[in-house]
């Protein structure tokens, strides 16, 4: 399609579906709105044509080749290198990666709404994209292994500033530090590191369970978290052990105890 026609269609779309300027919370919501407007227009018959836009589209689709097996990623692909502060620069902004990948060569995929960073075949970071200049986009979890080793940097660590966590996390931190001081601070970081493998919602529920049971420790929270994830069956439920023989236990009468005391048989 000629570039002039593309620009003309863009202008038509701007004038007809984006005036006044719409507002959406996400790009996905905006794209869904644009798709809806396009589908509504398929019933129109343009000047010089005898059939609708939708009918013409069906005829063109029948003549097109099938889509490729692998989906096309509409992104900007670049290479980069992780800095000593575990950051990767893309389009004038810095994005964090786990500290284990310091100084490594990485690839960067810049999508409209996010930036994905990988090393070899592994995706190591996925951030919302920033369109500012000189911005620093952190994932606090990326820095927790380093902070655990240098625990006194916990309160001043830039990646952890403005990290919004549920109230139960602050309660847990306060109890651990009040009981164990520096050791409790390190144990709290160990709890946060569970976010490397588990979702925030599940960890939050496990912490609330631990606080309710007054089992304030990393081991207890990890156990409660695994119970929520794996959902093991109750240990006393014999239905999950069909190979065990069943025992029929009758109600014991008071006379049986009297026979035992008298030295007789029950």
Provide a descriptive summary of the structure in words.
By secondary structure, the protein is an alpha+beta fold. 14% of the residues are buried. It is built from nine helices and seven strands; from the N terminus they run H-H-H-E-E-E-E-E-E-E-H-H-H-H-H-H. The termini are far apart. The chain has helices at 3-17, 27-41, 53-63, 144-149, 167-180, 182-192, 200-213, 218-230, 254-261; strands at residues 76-81, 87-90, 93-96, 105-110, 114-119, 122-128, 136-137. The chain folds into three domains: 3-63, no CATH class; 76-137, no CATH class; 143-230, no CATH class. It has a four-stranded antiparallel sheet, with no helix packed on it. Strands 2-3-7 form a three-stranded mixed sheet, with no helix packed on it.
Question: What distinguishing features does this structure have?
Answer:
single chain, alpha+beta, 3 domains, 9 helices, 13% strand, extended
